[in-house]
Structures are given as structure tokens and as C-alpha cells.
Specification:
Blueprint (H helix, E strand, L loop, with lengths): L18 H20 L4 H16 L12 H7 L13 H15 L15 H9 L1 H8 L9 H14 L5 H5 L11 E4 L1 H13 L3 E5 L7 H13 L5 E5 L12 H12 L4 H16 L2 E4 L15 H8 L3 E5 L1 H8 L10 H5 L6 E6 L10 H8 L12 E6 L3
Parallel strand pairs: 1-7, 2-3, 2-5, 3-4, 5-6
Antiparallel strand pairs: 6-7
């Protein structure tokens, strides 16, 4: 795991009272109970899940079995950590390993009845199939009446806020919607300029997806906008190769979301779904994945093949909190650290669309930090604030 000289401390989960500690000792136990309640796993799988809970909250890190399909990779990734308490590992590393071990416990990789079964599928399906989705997609019917710039701002804002604020809220929020007080940093003009440059150069825009379901839908609507309005000649959508962090998007989730758009009662949503389907068929939209997207490492450690793919992009849009942590490094950065300084290692111009749900944040001005600190709220982790940040590389 690469560390820049003089970088701030890596976040770890072993500090009682910290957000990271709460993830392991409060969030994960609830999650594991929900997983066991959602699917009829047998006694062996249930016992393995309970062992994972005990180990991750009070035990030491044990490597995967030698015959695990990615066992050698994890053995190398965890060099120096095996046998140490979970709380001593970097938070990002430990979280990633927790989800990998959950797949092991539920039989995802083993021959048998549960092989290839996504333990989070019931949650994803319930969200995508919920009646609220049709109401949100119906808001797209009003897009044609909006001026071009306002329409683009509404779609970016919808993708930014994901399932916290639905499409109808962002589209009808008025001209000030994208600059609402909840937006702690707004490089929207830089993002629009970067997309216009990508379009004028017939460039590729990469999108690194975050969550499936209701968050992926506005991401796909935004991708359709980029393609339909000449802001990208091609979009490459990167997803996870396997279930990860509960709701992270896989290829199957992309197909489900496109299908949901195609079947929506909204004629505009249906048309978006149809265009995306044809874009997939024709290669204007490409879905890709890579084992690194489930690695416990920051993007600073991108492997050479993936780095080369991103290097060819006119712009990469990184979605969500986890990808933000991987982009800038899961560290206790001073919040006024320049975004370009923390993300400048990335091989292409990069934009981050992120709702704050963890301690990491950079690129804020001192006045904003003082204002947010003055609220007395956990503004870094409560999901009520967001960022649009861009490193345009000149």
C-alpha cells in the first residue's frame, strides 16, 4: 500500500467512538443480521457468518483458505497484517476484507447451491422495484421543457445525491438547486467545461460507479445525456466484479437498471432506457470491471493495465463515498487540503461526485469548514452534505 511522504495518518477502526469503529461494532452486526434474514442460508453458512462477526469485532485477521480463487492476491495485500487485530488494519483495507470474507461465509465462491448468489440481491431488488422509483422516473418527463444548462445541472445533481434526493426534487428545485447550502464544494462550472472539452474532442468519459438501484438510475440517465448531447463520444462504465459493500453496482445491476428504465411508465425514461440498450449494443456505452475494484487499496496503487485505460480518457467521473476515499486516500486529511493535490496522481482529469458519509474530505475552503464545524453535527458522516470537485489538469 503506497504512502506519500508526509501524508496524514491512515484511518483505522480501532479507536472507540470513531466513525470507523462504529462501522465495525454497530453497522456490520446489523448488516449481517439482515443478510441472514433475507436469504435462507443453511447452518454452515450461518455459522460462518457468526464467526466472521466475532472475528471482525474482537479477533485477529486470518487469511483466506489457500484454495480461495483470490487467496494469493489477498495474502500479498495483507502482508504484515495477518494475525493482528482487525482494528489495527487501515479502515479501507479492513472494510474491503470484511465484505470479501462475507462472500466466503455465504458460499459465493464455493461449488454448491449458493455459488454466485449475491447476498445483497434482496436489498437491491426491493429498492429498484419499489413504487417510489416510478415516481422519480416520471420527473424525467419534465426535462424537455428545461433550458439546456439547467437540465444538465439537474442531472448532475441527481447523480450526485443518489438515493438521498430523488430526481423529482432535483429537477424541480429551481435555478439554485445545484448550489444549495448542502453542497460543501461546487466545481460545477469546471465539470461542465471538462465535459464540453471531452465532447469537442470526441473523447471517452469514464464513470466509476458506486451503488446499484436508485443511485445507479440517475447515473445512467446522466450517461445517456452525455452521449445524446455530444459531451462524450463513448462512455466506459466501471463496476465491481462481485458483490461488494452491500449495494455496489455489478454488471448484473447495470442490466437490471437499464431494464427498469426501459419498462418505466414514463415515456422519457423508457426512451432513455432504449437509447442505453442500443448504446451497449453499438459500443458507445461499455461496461467494464477489474479485480482491483474490490481490492483494499487506494487508486494511487492502480495496476498498470487499469491505469492505462484511465489515461486514455478525456475525463473520469468518480461516484460516491467509497470511490472518493480511494481517490484521495482514506486518511485524516486537513479538510482544506487542495483536491488537485490529493487526486493529482490519477492518470486522467478527474471529477468526484460524492455525498459525505465518512471522515475523509479535502478541497474545502476555511470558511466552509468553520461554518460546518459550527453546526455541532457530524457533517462529515451524516450524508447531508455533498461535493462536486474537479481536477481538470489545465
Amino acid at each position: 500500500m503506497t504512502s506519500a511522504p508526509g501524508a496524514p495518518p491512515v484511518i483505522r477502526s480501532g479507536v472507540p467512538g470513531s466513525f470507523a469503529h462504529g462501522v465495525f461494532h454497530e453497522r456490520h452486526p446489523k448488516l449481517l443480521r439482515q443478510v441472514l434474514d433475507a436469504l435462507p442460508y443453511g447452518p454452515g453458512e450461518r455459522a460462518a457468518v457468526e464467526r466472521l462477526l466475532a472475528e471482525s469485532t474482537g479477533g485477529v485477521l486470518e487469511p483466506l483458505e489457500a484454495d480461495a480463487p483470490d487467496g494469493a492476491r489477498w495474502l500479498a495485500w495483507g502482508e504484515g497484517l495477518w494475525g493482528r487485530p482487525w482494528g489495527e488494519a487501515p479502515f479501507l483495507w479492513a472494510e474491503s476484507y470484511f465484505y470479501r470474507r462475507l462472500l466466503e461465509a455465504t458460499g459465493y465462491f464455493r461449488p454448491g447451491a449458493w455459488q454466485g448468489v449475491d447476498p445483497f440481491a434482496p436489498f437491491k431488488s426491493a429498492e429498484l422495484d419499489g413504487p417510489a422509483v416510478d415516481e422519480e422516473l416520471a420527473a424525467l418527463d419534465g426535462l424537455d421543457g428545461l433550458p439546456e444548462e439547467r437540465r444538465a445541472r439537474a442531472l448532475v445533481s441527481s447523480a450526485l445525491w443518489g438515493n438521498r434526493a430523488d430526481l423529482s426534487f432535483r429537477i424541480t428545485a429551481g435555478a439554485q438547486g445545484a448550489s444549495a447550502p448542502d453542497l460543501a464544494a461546487d466545481d460545477g462550472p469546471l465539470l461542465r467545461a471538462a465535459l464540453e472539452r471531452a465532447g469537442s474532442g470526441a473523447g471517452t468519459v469514464c464513470v466509476v460507479a458506486d451503488n446499484a438501484g436508485r443511485e445507479l438510475l440517475p447515473d445512467l440517465v446522466l450517461i445517456d445525456h452525455l452521449l445524446a448531447h455530444g459531451l462524450a463520444a463513448r462512455v466506459v462504465l466501471y463496476v465491481k466484479p462481485q458483490p461488494y459493500f452491500v449495494s455496489d453496482a455489478t454488471t448484473a445491476d447495470v442490466l437490471a437498471a437499464v431494464g427498469r428504465l426501459r419498462a418505466a411508465p414514463s415515456p422519457v425514461a423508457g426512451a432513455v432506457g432504449g437509447r442505453l440498450w442500443r448504446a451497449l449494443e453499438g459500443g458507445a456505452l461499455v461496461v467494464r470491471t477489474h479485480p482491483f475494484f474490490c481490492a483494499p487499496l487506494p487508486f494511487h496503487d492502480l495496476p498498470a493495465d487499469l491505469r492505462a485505460e484511465f489515461a486514455g480518457a478525456a475525463l473520469t467521473i468518480v461516484k460516491g463515498d467509497l470511490n472518493y476515499r480511494r481517490l484521495v486516500g482514506d486518511r485524516l486529511w486537513p479538510p482544506t487540503t487542495p483536491f488537485a493535490g490529493a487526486a493529482g496522481h490519477f492518470p486522467s482529469p478527474v471529477a468526484a461526485l460524492r455525498t459525505l458519509k465518512s471522515d475523509v474530505v479535502v478541497g474545502l475552503d476555511a470558511a466552509t469548514v468553520a461554518r460546518l464545524d459550527g453546526t455541532g453535527t457530524p457533517w462529515r458522516t451524516d450524508g447531508r452534505h455533498a461535493l462536486v470537485q474537479v481536477d481538470p489538469r489545465g
